[in-house]
Amino acid sequence: MEKIKQNAIVKMIGFNRCVLLLVLVLMYVIFSLLVPGFAGMARIMSILNYVYFLGFLSLGVTFVIATGGIDFSIGPVMFCCGLISGYSMLNKGVPAPLALLLSILIGLIFGTVNGYLVAYWTVPPFIVSMASMNIAKGVAAVYTKTQSVSWPLSTDPVYGWIRNLVSFNGFPVGLVIFLIAAAICLIVLNNTKAGRYILCLGSNREAVRLSGVDTKKWEMLAYMICGLLVGIAAIFFVSAYTTVQPGYGDQYNNEAIAGCVMGGTSMVGGLASIGGTVIGVFIISLLQEGILALGFAKDVQLIVTGLIVIVVVYLDVMARRRKN
Amino acid sequence: MGDTILVMEDIDKTFPGVHALDHVHFDVKKGEVHALMGENGAGKSTLMKVLTGIYTKDSGSITYEGKEVEFHNTREAQDAGIVIVHQELNMVGDLTVAQNIFIGREFMKGFRIDDKKMIEESMKLFDELKIEIDPRAKMSDLTVGKQQMCEIAKAISHQAKVIIFDEPSAALTEKEIEDLFVIIRDLREKNLGIVYISHRMDEIKVITDRVTVMRDGGYVGTLITKDCTKEDIINMMVGRVIYEEPKTQSAVPKDAPVVLKVEHLNAGRMVKDVSFELKKGEILGFSGLMGAGRTETARALFGADPKTSGDIYVNGEKVTINSPQDAVKHGIGYLSEDRKRYGIVVQKTVTENSTLASMEDYMSGLFINKGKEKKVTEKYIDELKTKTPSPDQLVVNLSGGNQQKVVIAKWLVRNCDILIFDEPTRGIDVGAKNEIYKLMNRLASEGKSIIMISSEMTEILRMSDRIVVMCEGEKTGELDISEATQELIMDKATRNIS
User: Fold this and answer.
1) Which of residues 168 through 187 in chain A touch B, CB cutoff 8 A?
2) Does the structure show a pLDDT above 60 at B498?
3) Which of residues 277-316 of B touch A (CB under 8 A)?
4) Which end of chain A has the lower number of beta carbons within 10 A, N or C?
């Protein structure tokens, strides 16, 4: 065991993340054995479709959780982004590139407002995000007159190119974009002032404030980064799944948070791992796909993800208690 | 003195980086007051926490009333009859006295809480103790002394057989201490075993029967109080440590420039019209009882808490300080009395903590220059003799004294010229304590100016060039070290309290 921990590659990736990678591979093998025809490119592409949008959500919420906060609005806000930008593009003639930017902008606005309320008005993050979740659902429904929006398919002569963001002639463009985004997040979190302050204030806000740091500003920034990434997540969601319905999106909160916490980001703040979040997202996506492939109903996904969040957070709490 | 009621034998406890208790022996007899003495960080509180189940011991045994016991929390200890009266009072300010005394075991009348009965029972308790307190009064309206009496009443209502007083006199006036002693003698008459933790040598001679001394987490010895002198006890407490020579006169030249001037500072209820000056290279001691408003003054000055009014001048220039950011910008650093809450970021490394206040200086463009960061951290590890395996060590794994050094390093990295040290040696071990003293003297001689808040009289008299005394939020005196005595300071520290 100690020998494995000392291995150079293991050290570089981190022992916990190596375990997670192993879990991911094992899960894939088990699903492949249980479900005939599970293995294969078609399935992998399908899992990847899930990874893209969930990955951006998870990366975003990692920053918020690192501050010791939480954001339960990410799923519905993602839907709000997809609905408003899609409706604007299809019904109001907004050009496609602008519509995509609009999606990112809406995410950023939600993140900024959430962050402002949490940091400057010191409203508990739980309450803020619950409220903004409902606002996101409401705004989207009012704007689209409670109609679902179907984004154009790849065969569409005008808008079809958007789909290339996910895959181009079978090449997973989305994966490349997602991994680049993850790399940027990694650098921001570990090598910039913003990341340092976000992690430190998540660990001990008062000590950081008394060191002369503007903790409010940096805390708000974490929510803004989250909002930005949620706006991008929306683009990948509509590119992969076409239809967005007003009033939904909650289930992705849990999945994104599960991916993040599973990866080693602590719910009490101060500790975050982007690499862990990436692997966690793959595990959650594989699980969602596997559950359906095993012939269970979609609702089983909700139960399983819910249980995972509880177990993973419990393990995190226990690990901390042992340390103290 | 009667039979032995409690024996702690060979108690051992290790925290990461600290051997907190090293095979300690301690016993209490019925009908005695047993002093537990030792410097800050000697392990007194840890021992009592092991006894009452807040910490689990690594080895050793506790025998109580002839049976070996192991409590898992204070509740279990309480039920068995061992109760602590804490230095920091554990009272709910918004509840009444009676409600506080019976909290967690309220008398019920059906579904409703029977307040009337609780008030009656409280009255009985107070009668028994000959204290005059109205059980219907709101706890937060009582003085600290009265609140402590309520704690004692609460302890007795638990059918306590052993009561531990953890520095009960730290917040009390002379008069209140006398009242407390009357009660303690009364409890001794009733055959209770009493543990009395205190720093004040005079009290020990007056109230206790035996003294057990601890040093550096180890057991030094037990003496019969009336057979020993103050010096005997002090020698046992201090042991091998040779402290910095106490100052007999100020080391600051008369014409040294004033670096910080505070005028008519008001903040909240605890800071009333405080004015003082701090000179270059000076250590200005702030003395007073617990709750005198010293920390509150420092926090208001530093911008950590809002102030109502008052002017602050740094190097002769009037400055606005509304937040710690402003204070740091003007070269003021604050080392808090509560290191874990306000000083260090425990889950982060020594490096991350050291540069926390000065990130701007350790950036290359958008990115943190980790090499430069590490270099400056290593420099201060060296200079302050911080014991850490590497700059990448998490601060949580360092001992209290070394954590304190990391906080000091943070302000030195920031190059602050005015340092506020709030109880700089609280909870750190004896050896490290003297290192902090040396460091403060060195910093002062290098031209840094230090405000040192301390509740330890010996520390105030040993370190200060000048002493400001506070009482109930007001400055009640200012003394040069050449004229300062313990009695004079105590007199000023209790001036406003009748």
Assistant:
1) 187
2) no
3) 302, 304
4) N
* Residue entry with tokens 């303690």: B184
Question: By the CB < 8 Å criterion, does B337 face chain A?
Answer: no
Q: Chain A contact for B327, CB < 8 A?
A: yes
B192 and B303 housed in the same domain: no
Domain identity same for B209 and B296: no
Write a three-state SS string for A147-210: CCEECCCCCCCCCHHHHHHCCECCECHHHHHHHHHHHHHHHHHHHEHHHHHHHHHHHHHHHHHC
Structural domain containing residue B125: 4-238
Task: Collect all residues of chain A within an 8 Å Cβ-Cβ radius of residue B17.
Answer: none
Q: What is the mean pLDDT of residues A188-214?
A: 95
In angstroms and rounded to an integer, the radius of gyration of the C-alpha atoms of chain A is 20
Same domain? For B168 and B286 the reply is no
- The torsion defined by the Cα of A161, A164, A169 and A172, in degrees rounded to 10, comes to 180
Nearest to B202 by CA among B470, B487, B481, B461: B487
The pLDDT value recorded for residue B289 is: 85
pLDDT given at position B242: 65
Residue B432 sits in a domain of what CATH number? 3.40.50.300
CB neighbours of A46 closer than 8 A, spacing ≥ 6? A289
Q: How far apart are CA A167 and CA A175, in angstroms?
A: 9
Torsion sign (Cα): B159, B162, B167, B168: positive
ipTM of the complex: 0.89
Q: How far apart are CA B391 and CA B371, in angstroms?
A: 11
In residues, how long is chain A? 324
Coil, strand or helix at B102: coil
The confidence score (pLDDT) of residue B241 equals 61
Rounded-to-10 torsion of CA B133, B134, B138, B140:
-10
Q: State both tokens at B332.
A: 């003021």
Contacts of B345 in chain A (CB under 8 A): 200, 203-204, 207-208, 270
Please tell me which of the candidates B329, B357, B370 has its beta carbon nearest to residue A211.
B357
Joined together, the tokens standing for residue B151 give 């704690």
For B466, phi then psi, to 5°, come to -145, 155
Whether residues B233 and B308 share a domain: the answer is no
**CATH T-level assignment (fold) for domain A16-317:** ABC transporter involved in vitamin B12 uptake, BtuC (1.10.3470)
Q: Which of chain A's residues have a Cβ under 8 Å away from the Cβ of B335?
A: none
Contact A210 B302 (CB under 8 A): yes
Task: Give B201-259 pLDDT, tens digit per residue.
Answer: 778 888 999 999 998 888 999 999 999 888 888 888 877 666 777 788 888 888 999 99
Question: Chain A residue with minimal CA distance to B302?
Answer: A210
Same domain, B216 and B323: no
Residue with tokens 């009012």: A142
| Rounded Cα distance, A46 and A38, in Å | 11
> Are residues B457 and B341 both part of a single domain?
yes
Task: Write the single-letter amino acid at A44.
Answer: I
Could you report the per-residue pLDDT of A66-87, keeping only the tens digit for each? 999 999 999 999 999 999 999 9
* CA pair distance B177, B180, nearest whole angstrom: 5
Report the alpha-carbon distance of residue A183 to residue A189 in Å, rounded.
10
Interface of B with A in 398-427 (CB under 8 A): 410, 414
Average the pLDDT over B22-31 and give the result.
Answer: 94
- Domain locations along chain A: 16-317
For residue B410, give the chain A residue with the closest CA.
A211
Q: Which of A191, A208, A212 sits opposite B327 (nearest CB)?
A: A212
Choose among A197, A206, A323: nearest Cβ to B342.
A206
Domain count across chain B: 2
Nearest to B366 among A192, A208, A212 (CB): A192
For chain B, what's the residue count? Answer: 498
